[in-house]
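SEVERITY: medium
COMPONENT: batch folding queue
REPORTER: lab tech (J.R.)

DESCRIPTION
The queue accepted two submissions in a row. Attaching both inputs and their returned structure tokens so the on-call engineer can compare them side by side.

ATTACHMENT 1
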Amino acid sequence: ALQALPPLFADESRCKEAARLANKLREIAEDLVAEPKEKKLHVNAQTNRGEVDFETPFSLAVAAENVQTYCYKLETTILGRFEDALQEKEYQTMRDCIDTLQELDAKDAAVQRYISSRPVFLDVPSRLGAEETPPAMGEEVVEQQNSGTIGVAKRRTERVSEAQKKLRRYYDDLLTTMKDEAVTTEEVFPLPAEVMTTLIQRLLEQQVQSTLDSLLIAESGELQDSRYQMMLILMAYKETIDLASALQELSDPDTDMVRIADSLFGGFREHYLQYETELLEEIGAKQFSLKGTGSARYRGSLVGGETERFHRVSVQDLKQVVDWAKDAIDRCMEIFKLHQALLAHNVLEILTVLLKLTASYLNERLQYALQSCESGSKAISRNRLKTEHDMDFPTHFSKKAEALVNEVAEPLLVAVNNTGECMETLHNYLQEVVTPVVKASSATHSQCRHAFADFIHSMEESVLLALKTGATACSTLLDKVLFFEQRKEDFTPSRRTEMDILEPSQACYSCMHVFIEIRRSAQSLLGEKNGTSFTTEVSLRLHGVLMGHIKRYYFNMAGAVQLKRDTSEYLRTMRELGIEQVISMYETLATIANLLLVGPDIIPTVMESIKLPHEDLMLYLQLRNDYKSVKALLSQSGHIGT
């Protein structure tokens, strides 16, 4: 009993001194009891009082237990006194109690009781989310058609703004409360920063976490509309980090409150990337209107001229999707700024989705352009090319040639040109947006570069195939121009002599006007290098067309002169390209005209100069009106069999 104790332990005014002494005795007793029992305690030999055995009623074990009991009772008494003073806000009494408890190594118990009694932990955080549920992704497109995209976005923004105001007011109240608590702990506790650190950490992990759960998770437990949910998470994260930064000033600087606040979003971060990628896919599908993606109702609602843009490669459409992808990375940099490895992974995923969307979009649009090019060349009819044969024909047909190229070749050339601009836009996105974020992670950086390289390789193959197909379509157009414009009388004239033929035929003019227009359009839309490559492909195919075109007709001497004029015009035009391979092929074409023009006795010499198989030369030789007599002459000379 306390009345049986020495005066020091019975005097309440000397509690702090008694606590210090009792705690010291407890430590000594516990240390001695912890020693092996074989080691007895020996008193001073001068006292001649013998030794004390642990097994006796007066052993140290009993003494230690008594001291422990006293310390426990004293701690309970002081804690009770501390709680009473806490209720009355008697800060000096609380400080005295803390000093006494600190002597008993029981200060933490008082701190925990103090924190648990704080009103902020007794209030249940109210639900801060907007009452109105935002439209689901599938419903959003219908609502956009009825009231416009701006209306949907405005209502979503208003709901987030409403939630932000509520959350900010709540956080402001918490900050004010913590500042008041800092004043109290300064008066009560010897180390107020330690108390505030524990208090703030518990505030974040309990009250703030509960508030975030109520805000960011729907009542049904299902996550809401991705864009709305993403906006809420980002808003709540910024507000919570701002709160933690302000609370850091009230706590121990060695405890990172911002990192603790960041950890509260661990569960929400697990779904965040899914929101970003789903939304990027939805926006890309809507902007690109890809087949099999996006809303069928949205695509089906477009009529008339609105559908025309689905057949073009729109650089502007891509830039809008890229802008969203940039914003997506900016948002990830905000919410994953303390998790660099996750940030780099998320950037890679966003890039992958963007490249996949773009590849599908560009390939689909190139396919549309190819179909337009091929169908345009097939649709050219004789009536479309019908032109009066007059002296002003070249001027008149030049306009028609431009219209033909605009219909057949230009859609493809525009698509290829815009595809190149889209690829350049994505390259800039990789260099300026993606690389600075992921370069710290060599593995992820390498994956991003490989993903982009694969995309470029795939698109280059698609563009090359498109250009080759386009070149074939252009050669088909040129073949039709020749076929519809060339007259049999051009090569078998009955009223003209060789001296009357001074100009290329109308078919040659028409063909070259179209070819020149193709070259001009290619240079303008594809640039000098790519334009020259495309024009070269067309010229090579045109050579084959001309070689076949000649075989459609028979030639008298005047007609052979006309063919010579035509082939000279073709050669002159091709020389302007400056491509040796092309020039050489058209020079061969010109020598075939010589084969039809020269006298029979010169034919063997001409045949030896033409780099074509003998069988092919004979086929062209058969086009001469005088072939029978030529054949007989050549047979006599032994150049051909009888």
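ATTACHMENT 2
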Amino acid sequence: ESYTNLEWLLWMDYDAIVTQPYISVEDKIQDFRLLHHMKLADIDGKDATTEDPCLVWAKDDSQRNKGGGNDGVLLIQNNEISRELMRAITLEHTGGKKNVETATILRKKAYYKCSLLLQNDQKTMLQSNHVQKGQVHSWQSGHWILHLHNHSYLQLLSSLKTAGRELATNPPPLFPPLKRPSIETLSNKRLERFQSVQGAIRHAWTSYTNKCIYSSAPNKKFLGTHIPCDDISPVANEGHDWLYHAATLHDSLDTLFLAFGGDSTEYKEALDAVLQQDVQATSLRPTKTFEYSIRIVGGLLGAFSVTGDGRLLVRAWDSVESLLQSPFASSPTVLPRMYDILFPTRGNNMLFYKIYSRLYEWGRDKFTTEHHYNSLAGVGSFSLEFYFLSQVLGVNTYKQAVDGIFQHVITYQNQDGIVPSYWNVMTGEPENSQGGLGSGSDSFVEYLLKVPLLACLEEKGADNSSLLDCTPVLQDMLKLYDKIVQGPLRSNHVIRKGSDPSIAYPADHYRYHQLVCFLPGLVALGSSVNHHDNTIERKATDFALAEEMARGCQDMYEDATTGLGPEEVNVDNKRGDRSYQLRPEYIESVFILYQLTGREEYQDIGWQIFQSIEKFCKTKTGYTGLNDVYNPPNGNDEEGGGGGRVDNMPSYFLAETLKYLLLLFAPDDYVSLDEFVFTTEAHPLMRASRFKGAALASPSYIQAELARDVYLVHARLPWWLFCVLGFVIVLIGVVLVSLRKKKRLVLEPLSKD
């Protein structure tokens, strides 16, 4: 009764438990917390609630043949019911020997059971044969509960107290985190490349944190000083803002986990910065809605997908609610506004931010015509993130919001499937009839395929996969994707040279664009799945087109002096925007083509690009773009030299460029396209087919869990602005009172006369 602050109580048989040799309790606290969070009981035929006791018996099965017997511990969820039932707990016996497989609880004159199956690749560690309604939960390979090696009972109890304190502030994951890759199996060449990219990620991240998180230099920001800067300018060695929500911090979270693991210094410092305060919805500056969704919401959901950390899911959930309450709600049509000031939708100080946001919206609409227009990508690229959130939470609110946008804009599509690229959000009408596949439309086209890949169940075949259980909206997305690939992509967005017909340059408006180098990967991905009327012959021709476009992008890279592709040029004379902006699109396609073919040539291409980035873009304080890929800076001159530098390290460099390079050289099964779909900002989201194997709790339980106080996001109150507004209100009141008194003094003599 004195340990009511602990999450779990302990029933111990002797003083030792072994599940894997030579690993201490402290080393397995994370796995211990994971086990605690699993809901393993089916009580009264309903899902277990927070007040239902769940008991887990863990035994020393590995020591049975060594005279160790079946010693183990019984863990009991610590709540009022459990404490009342402690004396009613009995263990079944069979033939005079203890049967450690079933724990039976006496409650309300009836018996209830809690069952568990622990197994690895070699053997079953623990299995209950008394299962109600067939509920047996499998713990995945490598994820064990707890190990005690030469520890006394008091040491174990101390460890449990430590875990209890951790659980009070750091709730355990909702499912096991993505397992770290076994890089020992990599060849020496591939291992060297993998570690080189790790080093680049560490250098880029450290450069950002030194200037934007840990810097003691005076902060030039006049609003939202608690939020780190979005990006850094390596040459000027300073942070700068454009989104006002710490874009690089959120964009980098899943990259840091994939590169270094959840226990790494890099990931922990990023996580602490994200969780410290509500940096997601407390900026006092207008933010760009589309960019916020792909970087902030996408970054949080991607990190949740690989870690299972419910705190990240809560922040993503709150962020999406902020979008719905501001740019979505402030638009008179289904199309969201391009910019808006967001506000927290729950938690302390919410009212202040809401009033501030509403005042901004009133002033904007009363006195200006700002934010009446948005691009197709800006209104139609929320689908992947919103669908994923709906799947996890088991609610249709977010899915329906983006379905409405899609169904609206496709009513204006041209005969060839191209949707207009510029929209008036106040009327819901397109501003032109023209469209494309590049800037302003690219992510909308990308999500036509990726949303069905995420949300539809997949059936693996001998040579390919099929998408099943697609809703009518998802089927319409696939149809429009096919229409675009078979029509305008081939006719208007590919440039061929007569000298080599096997090379096709991805183009927009009849010029090569770096941005549309995502098309080789997208088309290759679409050719790998059976959907709509995607025949074997069509898939073969689509994949051939994907490889031809990849060769076109590669030719532009190889033709440049730096080995890096230009932003936008004429294919023949290379006139145009010859800069390199650290973009990821071609590297994304290289990664996808490698995943689908396994051909080492794609790894070699990626390595050549990485070496060029290291040679021409790396500085002491991060990475920069180049003004002219055909006229590089002199050596590693930070001031520029030669063609000079683009003094910006955008958040997508860590989120996309370096992540795809890392995964290109990582073990093939680390982040597989069979299990994840990458957002337009390269954040991996679990596919529907993986949900079943991820030991993910039910949506209703997740919603109840995330409502706990431990998940509450605390919004910072900007006292100085609060005081200024208060002073202004008081001043206005004083002026009004003074004017009223003055008016009374003027009127009084007149009344006497």
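NOTES FROM REPORTER
The longest strand covers residues 97-107.
No errors were logged for either attachment.
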